[in-house]
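Ticket #4471: structure output looks truncated?

Reporter: J.K.
Steps to reproduce: submitted the chain below (872 residues) through the standard prediction queue, then opened the result file.
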Amino acid sequence: MTEYSYVVTVLTGGPIDISEDIEEIECIDTGTGEVKSAKIRLNSIEGKYITAAPLMTQFVQIKIKITDEDSVDYEQIYEVDRVIPIKNAAEGYTVELELMGQEQHLQKKDIAKQFYFTSAQETAEGIIDFYNDDLGTAQPTVINHDVTTSGNNELPVWTANNYEFGLSEIKAYDALLEVVEGLGASVAGGGAGDFYELYFDSDTADPTQIKFKAFVSGSSPAGGSEVTITDSTSVNEAPTEGGLHAITGTLVKAWGKINIGTLPNSIQNFAGELEAFRLHPQHASGVTYPANARVQLAGTHYQANVQTSNTPPHANWTSKTFADIQGAANGYSLWTDGKIDEWQSSGSDPSTANKGKGYWDSNMNIEDGIYTQRWVIKRVNTDVTGVGSGQIPSNYKYSGTDLYRGFRVLVDPNIGTISGVFAENSGNDRFGKAYSNNIVQHNGGTAGDYTDWDVILETADLNRVAVRDEGKVYERQSGTWTDISGVARENHCFHLVSSVANVTGYNSTSDDTTTFGDGSAVEFTWSYTALNAIPAGFFTTDGFYQIGAWANFSFPFPENSYFSNTIGELYGNNATKKEPVTLDSNNMHLSHSGNVGFNHTEAEDLGPINGIQFQMKFQWKDVTSALTLQGNFKMRCTMYDTNDNVVIQDFTIPFNDQWAQIHLPFSEFSPYRARIPLSLGNIAPNLFTRDLEILNTFQWKNIKLICFQWQEVYDDQGRYAPEGSRAIWGAAAGTATIKLAIDAFCFTKPLLAVTAPVTTRVIEPRSLQFPDISNSVQLSQIVNSQLEIEKFRHKEFIITTQGKNDISFGDTFFLTDSKIVVDDDTRTADSGGTANTIRLVAKRIIRKITKRQTSGAGSFLRTIIGIKRTIT
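Returned output as attached by the reporter:
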């Protein structure tokens, strides 16, 4: 029988030795997410400990010391958590005490502090300092958190991560755990490339304080000093959670803060990398850095080539610019940087063969009494591909042959005899509606016949159609579609642009080789004549419609292959699915290339979209070439869905020729119904109050078109009427120029990080939730760290031996058993060691002492939960 001894002492109001009354002791030594605990059973004859002194109440401190046969002590201080009085015929009066380690107080105290790309060591120190500064007199002070020597705070000093603990309160213990658990990612990915343990040790000489310990899992004892267990009394005795488990994940994802994620994700990733780069930690002399660690010194950033303690500049370090890390070709604004052609494709007359290259506004759809207007892409009399006036150009088709869902035309018999699919089924769609003279939309079908097209509006005389391919408005007059673009004010929704160019964007971030804002913004130039008096004939000219500023965006993006584009090359480029061709605000089904699920490189596209975000600049000059001294430009964003519903949201650019960041939440858009032009004399109000029911609600799953416009050239009914605006009276007579630029255009959503796709077996554990994390680099580091844990085959052994204190929490030890162990581990590898031997790390140690009722002598058993860790 194992020789042992124990002493149990009540410290509160004492010390009082209560060892003689002990009937059973169970101590559970653990850490890294779990608090030490213990349970003792006491003889409470005459009500001792319950109604008679020394009374056991919550937070009473009790010290337990167990000495094994080798005179090795296990000694910890606990606090009473729960008292269970017991009375039965066999044992009389007893009391059972459930005890908790003193670190429980870190689970009861909130902290709220942000750490911007600080090291794990510094962050842990800051968390403990916050706790110590805000604790009560009856709670223990944490010590040694600021001591970096072995056995104390051994967390790495070379990591640099962002911890958003200041956005909402978090328990001090949970914050420490988040820091420690994130270190498993690679060094290049912001981690330490190793796994760490978190532990709190009692200061048995001073119960008012506890010792902080953080160390590499399994780093103790030194190599060659590990204990090997060969005499276990039981291993994984049923019931048990031990054994050789299956891997739990090969693909890990985590959700971060809302409104920080972006589609496209170039904007979120650039911002995350830039923040991380600027906050690389300063090099610390005497510290050994692992390979791929990044530091800065004297204004220069470096990356370690190998593990090194040398100070840069040195052969062991390579200098790094931001472009080296980000990639010189990887700008922040994927949908505007160098993307003139793509934005031109969204406008009107992209072929420039009709009215001329231009842009449309918020009034393509009208529902105003007897007057109805809808938009189409083209007037046709056939679905045949070709360059004829009634054919569909190959520029509007995937691979020049296939149309996408939502492609919309006016079937106009005036062009020529209706043919192709529009002549099938007696000239009717699958619901029996005639194609001729009506607005028809492709439904995404692939039958290749009339069933792929549906009539979405049966027109009548005085109905109008805004034809985007031509940049003209047509009206049905006596059954014939007539071009009215030359009638005063009637081409009100189309505006010819002077030029479109890529210019320097808002972000001036640069390094020795790259300025990332160069060519990042798309700029639309509008030149017009500011007149003191406007002649009547001016309202029929193209110059009339150029007074103002507009920019258009459409899905798929780009919408056609004019200007040397590929349809959907940035959003919707799956020529097989021909999707996505609209934006679904739910955004959980398809990536920008039509991929589903999370096992692909575009998975981080996904996440519910809640708004539009961009940088916008409005530059206004008059004939004197001096900037007009006016700002507060009233702007409007308009969105169209595929069901002809329209919503708007107004915003303001505060200063002339200054970038303004704009965020437009979807929740702030309101329904809009456009009015007929002023030329028809309808001036009755047509405003919608918030409580007025709109039967045709906006389809947020099918956002098709987006327009930005200077709202001050419209009247209070939303009709184009620039003659009374400051566009005319606010500039000197002569030529005036407006340059409207947009940069960093994106849709906002929750931040999402997903590990690299796998090809063999996709196993997805439950998504991680980190709603306070706002940096994409930090979130990626978390998922990559978790992946190492999930994909490592969990091997757990629950081993019971005679009582010993030679293994501590977090220690490496070996288990040898020829009947149940198949491994042959060494300390640093999964092979090459002694046969039937596995390397384990002690994650929980249970020491249990039970006294016998007759002799008083009892057993001392130790149970270790040992887990095989990843070799690094």
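Triage note (M.O.): checked the attachment and the full token line is present. Confidence is low (pLDDT under 50) at residues 681-695.
Status: closed, working as intended.
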